[in-house]
Amino acid sequence: MAQLITGIHHVTAIAAGAQENIDFYAGILGLRLVKKTVNFDASGVYHFYYGDQLGNPGSILTFFPYAGLTGGRHGKGMLNTTTFSVASSSMNYWLARLKQFSVEYKQPVERFEGELVVYFEDPDGLGLELVFNDRDDRPGFSYGHIPGEHALKGLYNAEIWEEGYERTAGLLSEQLDHQLIAEKGNRFRFAAKNSPGNYVDILCTPDSLKGLAGSGTVHHIAFATPDAKAQLEVRERVLKRMLNPTPVLDRNYFTSIYFREPGGVLFEVATSGPGFSVDEDPGHLGEELKLPLQFEPDRPGIEAQLIPVKLDFEQFR
């Protein structure tokens, strides 16, 4: 049977401040802002996409910044930690950089063999980790204020907290082409492809409180599928599991379906193309506000609602 899911496509989270979000992710962390657009379901809200040079699947973290939004709460039924892959030789650089910009972090710990993990949070409290490893041959992206050898290479894994792992594990393995590849204590690691950027860790945390949505929390995780045909086949699989997927929705840079997994986390299945170069030159991604065609007639009104933002890296050198 053909593999319909090839790994993680992106993770989407919620923030409170637009400029603060850009300063942290493109400034301090050095990710590329590959697309500046709006929430296709709420045009008065930005949608920022960060990733590697082209925004390849497995590198993308996106945000909806809602000005003044109340903070959420990490807990079960939620994706609580999103991680980035970094070369092992870059640990001292990144610990010094986090300290330089007053980002508090936990001391490095080994998770699985060959992984040293440093936990920290963004200004809204979103759970993040740097995973230092020698298994990732993806090139990192740097605007130049972070040396290329230390640049983040993309996502490493996503961490979901659940009451119990069995039902979510069943969905991942039976409908979404994942396999259990490692476990340690209450952590169960699944992957559609055994490589950094594609790991999904389920943590059994029955004693934790239920997570609450708000700034500093993850909205959904998206899994990659090659094309529209494969996406429809995945949708049929999900329908048979009676998880009520949405119709296929056009997101301009990919098409999507959405559904909630048994533990409550919103899952998306997104096509790998056409990608972020469909409306911008690859050398100038993220420089202009891009709107879907249906919003173009309302551009003046949409722009009037959005707080202007800028990329300024001098303060982050």
From TrEMBL:
Tree of life domain: Bacteria
Matches recorded under InterPro entries: Extradiol_RC_dioxygenase (IPR052537), Glyas_Bleomycin-R_OHBP_Dase (IPR029068), Glyas_Fos-R_dOase_dom (IPR004360), VOC_core (IPR037523)
Domain (VOC): residue spans on this chain: 7-133, 154-272
The protein's name: VOC family protein
Species of provenance: Terrimonas ginsenosidimutans
